[in-house]
Amino acid sequence: MATSVVPVRTKAPVQGRDIAAQVRKYIQEAARPMLVEAGSAPFALTPESWELVERGNTVLLHAWSERSNLSRRITAVLSSRPDQMTLRTEVFGGRTGTLTIYDAGRPSTRNHDRRGARLELRERFRRFLRRQFPDMKVADLSAEANLENTLSPNFPRALLKKGGAGWAAMCAPAEASIVDEVLSFGLIWLDYLRRRDTRLAIEGLVLYLPAGLERTTCLRLNYLSGAKWRAWAYAEEGFEAPLDLADYGNLNSAVAICRAPIADESSLAPLYRIPGFERIPAPDGSIRLRVRGVELARLSDRGLLWTFDGCRPRPCTAGEVEPLAAELSRIRCHDTADRGNPLYRREPELWLESQVRAQIESIDPQILPGPVYGQVPGVTGTAHGIIDLLGCRRDGRLAVIELKASEDIHLPLQALDYWMRVKWHAERDDFTRNGYFPGTPVRAEAPRLLLVAPALQFHPSNEIVLRFFSPEVAVERIGVGLEWQKKLKTTLRA
């Protein structure tokens, strides 16, 4: 028996004079109407910043802002929903394109602004590459996510080709919170292209960095090898200039004087009997009181101060601290039955730090059991949930220990930030002069760098990034067993 095929009906695009009425209605009813075109920044459609002009069956849409303006002929409304409307446009030469008008007041459109900014940055990056590399072909230009190869949409990327040679290229947005991530993704992109295009000699990496936010990336490049590095700085006004990496040798870093604790600890004796209780001397002369990484109080020449939960320090007694310390000792324990408790899950890096401090010989038998200092000199690593520790080996060579309890793409380069500062101060004898590691002559040799994490929690891209480290950086990945809360057991050394 023959079957009949019923055609699927689709809504025809709105055309002709009905376009203007529908566009006006959408803009007037939207809470925060915005207009975006691929490669351009979004326009806010306030009553004073747009107009529709009807000439016969032709509808022209004009929009403007302080930075730019746009004029397009609208030939059809392709789709219209409460959150967005898509328009077909026609530009010179009969080429067609699309515009999107969306309501930024709706939660479902939150990504429109970010995507518009990414596309605008991609087109700016394209223009930069064509200006600075006019004899090379720009290929694979993209601002889309590539999860399989760990490439972020925040950083437009491209391949420059000429004959059998090429360069990887990447652009960083002018966002202080993520700009320093560009080098991790740039190295991953460079490695990917070298593996994919085996017939092409990928010489190195070109980075396009926002002026004023380029320092960290340039400092890091001085300690990488295995490729050539070129960097430019750009300003919002359109200015761009090549950067000389040799200008980024000096570090804005300082080592504070290490003071011995002078506070009376006699009242704390009951606390020291609680399992997992820790006494951590700090370089400022205070003593941090913790239970498996969670700080409860701080002892200084001002007395005992309550600091739990990051509160403003206030005077307290050991009797006030003891009940909470006992409760934390019960909950933050490898065999607790209360693993869903927020206090158990809290600050895993600090818990890992407490284990490393207590069992430092399992990480490196040559590191002295104490003192081990935290965040000296200070850098921004902890803003990313990474713990920086500084120890000294028995031969006087310093050891930088970076701890992470979960996967982190940027672990190697954030560790490098701390390593280069320790190296800088070791060469100037700042640690010995300021009272660190008393009784042990600290060598000026570049420190060892130890990356410590649960063995299964190293991100796969960490190995790629580490391959680009200079031989000067003696780095080792140390993986610990999954039950590190119970006992720190090394299961991986690479």
Describe this structure as you would to a colleague:
The chain is of the alpha+beta class and 494 residues long. It has four domains: 18-105, Protein Yojf, Chain: A (Distorted Sandwich), CATH 2.70.180; 115-248, Trna Endonuclease, Chain: A, domain 1 (3-Layer(aba) Sandwich), CATH 3.40.1350; 266-344, no CATH class; 348-493. The protein is built from twelve helices and 24 strands. It has helices at residues 18-29, 110-132, 182-196, 215-221, 269-272, 318-331, 342-345, 348-358, 360-363, 411-427, 430-433, 460-466, and strands spanning 33-36, 43-44, 50-55, 58-64, 69-80, 84-90, 96-103, 137-142, 157-162, 165-171, 201-210, 228-234, 240-242, 277-281, 287-291, 294-300, 303-306, 314-315, 373-374, 387-392, 398-403, 448-454, 474-480, 490-493. The longest helix is centred in the N-terminal third of the chain and has 23 residues, at 110-132. The termini are far apart.
